[in-house]
Amino acid sequence: MNTSLLKKLTVATLLAGTLLTAQAALKVGDTLPDLTSFSLVGPLPAALKGKIVIVDFWASWCLPCAKSFPVLDELQKKYGDRLVVLAVNVDEQASNMDSFLKKHAVSFTVVRDAGQKLVAVVEPATMPTSFILDGTDKVRFLHNGFHGEDTRKEYISEIESLLK
Is 111 assigned a catalytic role? Predict the structure, then answer.
């Protein structure tokens, strides 16, 4: 095989992989996949339909995650049963998640994606990544990272817009 053809095939393969990856990631306008099909560790909230849902992907080693948890907890308490916050931990070791939660106790639901199956489908860009869903499980807003008060204000504005 000549070098030119090999280079072209390599570039084509890389481009195809990039396009497939970009299309596989959960984005605004998509519907959240059925969470029961991913063998998440921990009980899922009973009912998500008809509620605003924040699905937050996080890890114990993530410093912005530690800062986002009090805000997510505040939102859960503020909006009560109109909002469901679901935090999906991506740590390989359950003990890391448990240690984090001892330091950062919360009132919202936390599950662990032990097999990394949901993460493989959703492909969060960074830790944390939050998806805000409307009452039909459609992603309406997406947050890559947590930027303190700016993100808090965006969450509130977005939740309020969905509650109207």
Answer: no
